[in-house]
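Q: I'm a student working through a structural biology exercise. My instructor gave each of us a protein and asked us to get a predicted structure, then write a short paragraph describing it. Mine is LamG-like jellyroll fold domain-containing protein. I'm not confident about reading structure output yet, so if you can add a plain explanation after the tokens, that would really help. Here is the sequence I was given:
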Amino acid sequence: MKRLAIIISLLICTTTSGFSPTYLSFNTGQISPLMEARIDFAKYRSSARTVENMLVTTQGPVFRRPGTKYIATQQDSTAIGRVISYEHSVDDAYVLLLEDQAMRFFRDGGQILNSVGTEILTGGSKPGTANLVVHWLLNDDEGTAVLDDNGGTHDATASTDTATLNVVGKVGTGAFDLDGQYTVALATHNDFIFTDGANDSAFSLACWAYVTEVNKDQVLLSKWKVASEDREWRLALSPAGNLYLDMYDVSTDVNSDRVAQWKLNDDAANKTVTDAVGTHHGATQTSNTTDLTETGIINACLDLRKVGSDAVVLDADSALLSFNGTTDSAMSIAAWVYVVEVSNPQTILSKHDVTTGSLDREWRFWLDPRGLLLFRIYDESANAFQTVRTRSVISTGWHFVCATYDGSGGTSASDGMTLYIDGESATTVTQNLGTYADMEDGATKVVIGASYGASGSLTNYWEEKLDNVMLFDIELTESSVTTLYNDGAGIEDLTVAHSRVWAMSDNAITNGWHFLASTYSAPADETAAADGIILYVDGAAIDSTATNNSTYTAMQSGTASVRIGSLRNSAGSANEMFWNDKMDEVSIFSDVLTSAEIASLHSTPPYEIETPYLTADLFDLDFIKSEDVMYIVHPDYEPRQLSRSGHTLWSIDALNIGTGPFQAENEDTDLTITPAGATYTADSAITLTAASDLFQPGQIGSIWRIEQVRATSQITGTFTANGNSISTPFFSGAYGFTTSGNSGGTITLMRSTNNGASWRPALTALTNTDFDNPAEIEEDGAIYRVVMSNYGSGSPTYTITITDNANKGVVRITGVQNSTDATATVITALVDGTATSNWREGYWSDFRGWPETVTI
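A: Happy to help. First, here is the predicted structure for LamG-like jellyroll fold domain-containing protein. I'll explain a few features afterward.
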């Protein structure tokens, strides 16, 4: 006959007056909801309207509806099992199924399943090793080497000894507890670069991780250095616990390439104009910035014609503002400009001085009187220049303009010069003069909104508003320019001016162990790159939201290391975004794993824990529950406690009772026990030698009380301030406590049963009064000390005298070598190694038997 696990249904009743799970009698029976329209309905208010899994008798009381519901088949359907209840909380109850040396768990009408992984990647529908890049089992427990199970090609290094990291894992023989501070790193390698700079290639990441709530980003796997050109990919959890994979195209990241950025948000009763980079500040020449400020494209801007003609001149020249050497170096200028029709040239940004007799020209970016945009670089000593100019006039209003130069130099330098308007490259013509070689580092100052004319004064002023003027020491790419344009909204904070794509799970990942994975198919359409990301939790694809970026082209190969459980900070000096808990079984593939392959690496068998109880023992077990712990006893087994810390986090452990009870005291004065050890305090390892046959193998785990005689002990002292006395030795039995001269403070006698870890009063504290307690009893065993608080004056004295010289130490047998020799661990301190015949064997052991019933 097949035996099934049966789940008993819970009572749920709804009355006309509300929900009451303890309301078990309905004097007017059960009614139809249609009766609520009756004008005499008041007399039915004690009736039951909706009853689930219960029936209402005609007399009123309810009883459980007979019948059962099939939930699951036990492990061995031909064997006997036992079902018991476990109420964790008012709204969270379990049914426990005990079988032969196993226990399974049920709740909410279903069986609790376990998440199980594998270290075997071959066979069946598993992904195999053809596209396997690396496979870190994280079973390492010696040294800092973290071995690659895929042929050892990519062995990594832990930031501390793996013996510190190694814990019981989810898969295999171990896992790493990264503890929010440790990581595993491997220097960059082509195998982990899934791009050629123009096109991405597919890859997949997978690992087991223990999720906890820490309200910060936690990285699982990364090839990423914060705020640098070494950002490629990372798999992580958000502060809210959502799983995400993001990738970065650093070709559009220009924050670190700024020479200067004048946001022109300045609004003060002075002329200072601030460089956001922090080096090249300047000043308006006529008006305070508060008189020039206007609403800009991004925050504020400066209207340089609001009060006459004005411009911003930098405080000093700098070599950083010149882009030459033996040959030119790359440069770019970008700005938001408000165009109006005028009949004179308008300068956006210049390092250009045409003072008669002392020409000092390097570069200039401006509009000519026709409204054409020009960018020119000069070779002063050769009286030569190279120029690009737009073919079309710029319309009036706000525009984002940009000039780039690749630094190629020479007579064809203009071939490396490009103009952009509103994020798109403009059609241009070149205008060159003389034999250009390269720019020369002159002394003229950079000016925003003007340039120096023949008279040595500023001229060619910008006639309207300027905003967010930027100077770079690189040739901006078209995608970078598009990013800075930002669909007409602009960007001031260049730390976010990037091409990042990502997909993030719609829901947070619950706490506990999970199998987390991501795949990326590298779509041919880069503008839909994020659509190629699939996120998996516990073997199944999850709902996620993809965020694409029209400027994304591909990841750019960098030098960032591959890391487990962290990424590198921007300075490259430390790690951050550590994984807070455990990780196990990490693998990286250079292809897209299919959903079937992902599923093959994860399974969900019934969750169960191992118990010592055989089938024949099950109906002799006795249980009692106290708060979150259930105590289980059987006459043939040491008592155990069953504890729950999660749906799939249960443990059953020996109770290790250390306080008794004990059998009658030994009456054979010749049968002594001699302890021996380096120390005799709690947790000390000692040996026990009996004078004749005494010990049995079945006594391992049993406790013994060993009574020895100690010398009379006394501590005394004087208080002159608040403080604590020294502590007495551990003792039990009679003691006395007296004080004298306490006329200005509070004295408390404290006791500790855990060697000083915590203290409680032994006697009621006295203020301005002395103790005279010569005959007190310590029954359990403790150490004592005296505490003075609220000290006022005087020199009160105290004395603790231990008058009972009998020390009742307790030890637990850990091994039996023969009938006269055993090893033990001290539970309650012994005096020394003196032999004694005053001992008591514990009442319970495998040799003597264990309790059959339990109560609280």
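A: Here are two points you could use in your paragraph. Residues 221 and 564 are 5 Å apart (CA to CA). The longest helix spans residues 478-485. It's a good idea to check both against the output above yourself.
Q: Great, thank you!
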